[in-house]
Amino acid sequence: MEQILVNGAILSANYALIALGITLIFGIMNVLNFAHGQMFMIGGLIVYTVCVVFKLPYAVGLLSAAVAVGLIGMLLERTLFQRVMRISSREENTMLLAVGTALLLENIALYVFGEKQRGIPPMVSGVYRLGSAFLPANRLLVFAISLALIAAVLLFVNFTRQGRAMRALAQDRTATMLMGVDVNRISMLGFGLGAALAGIAGGLLISVSGVNAGIGTAISTKAFIMIMIGGAGVIGGALLGAVALGFAEAIGYALFPGSVTYLLIFTALILFLLIRPQGIMGKPWG
Amino acid sequence: MMETTRRRLLKGVGALAVAGVMATAAGLGATGAAFAEGKTLKIGQLGVMSGAEASWGLVNKYAAQATAEMWNAKGGVDIGGEKYKIEIVSVDDRNDPKLTVSGAERLMGQEGIRYVIGSNTDVTATSIRPIAEKYNAMYFPYASSRSLYTKPAENAVMGMVASYQVAPAILKLLKAERGVKKVAFVARNDSDGLSNRDDAVKAAKDLGLDVVSADATYEANATDFFPVMSNVVATSPDLIFLPASAPSNTPLLMRAARELGYAGLFASDSGQDIKVINEMAGDAGNGLVSIGGASADAIRSEYMDDFIKAYTKVAGEWNDEAGTKVYALEVILATLQATGPSAIEDTNVFKAAIPGFSMKNPFLKEDSKLTFTGEADYGQKRQIGVPLVLTETKDGQFTTLAIGQVD
Questions:
Q1: Domain total for chain B?
Q2: What percent of chain A is predicted at pLDDT more than 90?
Q3: Could you identify which of A28, A266, B141, B215 might form a hypothetical disulfide with A257, taking C-beta atoms 3.0 to 4.6 angstroms apart as the criterion?
């Protein structure tokens, strides 16, 4: 039982970082970012390059991943998404654009970084015991960094001028414009922050699970499950979705054969959406 | 001012486009001229080259391209007194049978290619069969399903050693030499993973081993194996067998088990890559027995050294998995050399040559023969007689445990 709780908590914290980024982007721009998993992947591969190829400290790698993926996100928002949203009123166009972006990033990564799984050694070694549960020190460190980053994002969104502007934008774009907020700049900043969070998550988890150029779709799928559970565009919902998925996986893998776990998760998700299609906390998140 | 700039920009882009088209045309002309001097033999390569399993198909592609470059550098392959340049035509099926079917149609139908390397899984390889039979083309899958190679099927030739041939060999060796008694299995939850698992479980039971866990599976897109391994390690096995585990998953599975206190052995019936194991698992990567290729230091020939160089040039870095995939194109070319040019278009000639074909294995230092095999498993020779090389990871290296032969 202790092992299930430990596994669930660690998975939840890891997933929360991924879910936070995608829900920020959805909340601010109403864009379902299908390329979120690819941004996670690029963050991991940047950390790999900095730490393994250039042999620089891990902190430099993580910072590089956050900055580089954040800038990629801002660039994509400014050059692609903002334009498509301006000239097209159909929401599916931004979705198709996101799918295209995902394929583009995946193929660039495959070309630049190759087909192999990339990983870095654990930042710290050793295994702790919590009752009968095993807790590797590296996972504990990733868990702690994830919690700190989640707290930082919550503080930023709730207590800074830009964060409040993002929340306002998510609630009512027109009213936010009328208040004199530069919505284009805030959208770009929000997209960049969401992308940077994905990059950081990839950079953290490369020391746990590694990344490869093709991992993006799987990560995006999990991110979508989380925001469907919690409610798209709601920060609290993203965290709730992450906890729900993390513990569902941990409990499922402990009690059922692996193949049954995701079958049950998807079945439960469908039944849940039939009852509450907007997720637990719905939208908007102001 | 703005208008002028934009116009200039458009003119610049236009000029670049025209220059690009002209350069491409010139390049095509040059290529056409080069090929006009001799004949070209097109070889297809069909497999998964994007997504999580991209490494399987890409290694096939790079291996085929490296082999082709080596032959082309010598002026081409001599078939019936004429030199043929080898051209590899690759199609990515994304591990999706629908795309495999359209890819096979393109290669075998539109391109008229009669020899195709791939695909990489049972499901996709099975989907090629009707197209291969329609065009009477040969294909060389990296898939274990017996139905692909057993009559009435006769167009597929397995390019590797099958899981049900590897698993008994590994289990027998570890039982005899390492005292393994209790085995747990952790399989990927897809067709290949589960069928390989079932074959390996049967082999373990036949050998009298105690199967302490056989139900644990993980999703193909899993990134965290701690929950799955928690259950498996709790059964206290001497050996954790990882059927059809991808090189990307194996080190993570091992690391999770080691972090949970597991100190026993691991085994896998699929090819792995030592660099990935070292990067991802570190010391936790010791003690993995798996199928190796022709690249182990102790066994490889100078020709294999050349292949490694050519592969590294093509792919950017060496991949140990390629050591298990060097054989398909080399055997296709040698068989065509033996039959003469008629087999290039008529695969019935190729099929007729299979039973009597034999060549020196160019990749191994020691003098050994490379033939078609598979009669014991399929009732006909529809498998390349790849040597069964078993390796163990030790201190960041693959060490060769045993070399055998299928059939």
A1: 2
A2: 34
A3: B215
Range with the poorest average pLDDT among B219-228, B261-270, B326-335: B219-228
Same domain, B215 and B176: yes
> Mean pLDDT throughout B81-91?
96
Q: Would B3 be classed as within a structural domain?
A: no
Tell me the C-alpha distance between A269 and B34, whole Å: 59
Same domain (yes/no): B397, B379:
no
Q: Are residues B144 and B27 in the same domain?
A: yes
**For B59, nearest residue in chain A (alpha carbons):** A115
If asked whether residues B28 and B145 sit together in one domain, one would say yes
DSSP strand E in A112-246: where?
127-130, 133-136
Q: Which of A7, A205, A254 sits opposite B223 (nearest CB)?
A: A205
Domain co-membership, B154 together with B181: no
> How far, in whole angstroms, is CA B40 from its chain's centroid?
24
Q: What CA–CA distance (Å, rounded) separates B308 from B305? A: 5
Residues B262, B210 share a domain = yes
Q: A258 vs B259: CB contact, 8 Å cut-off?
A: no
Residue with tokens 């959406």: A273
- Determine the pLDDT at residue B22: 43
Domain ranges of chain A: 2-120+127-213
Contact A116 B273 (CB under 8 A): yes
Interchain CB distance below 8 Å, B316 and A115: no
B4 assigned to some structural domain: no
CB contact under 8 A, A116 and B217: no
Specify whether B81 is located in the same domain as B137: yes
Q: Is B272 left (phi over 0), alpha (psi -120 to 50) or beta?
A: beta
Give the closest residue to B91 by CA, choosing from B159, B45, B143: B45
What is the pTM (predicted TM-score) of this model?
Answer: 0.77
Segments in B38-121 forming alpha helices (H): 54-73, 97-104
A18-47 average pLDDT score = 88
Q: Which residue of B has its CA nearest to A7?
A: B227
CATH number at residue B269: 3.40.50.2300
User: How high is the pLDDT of residue B25?
Assistant: 42
B265-286: pLDDT as tens digits: 999 998 888 888 998 888 899 9
Question: In terms of residue numbers, what domain contains B369?
Answer: 10-160+297-386
Token pair for B80: 């019936």
Instruction: Kindly tell me if the per-residue pLDDT of A286 is higher than 50.
Output: no
Predicted pLDDT at A200: 93
Residue B223's pLDDT band, with cuts at 50, 70 and 90, is confident
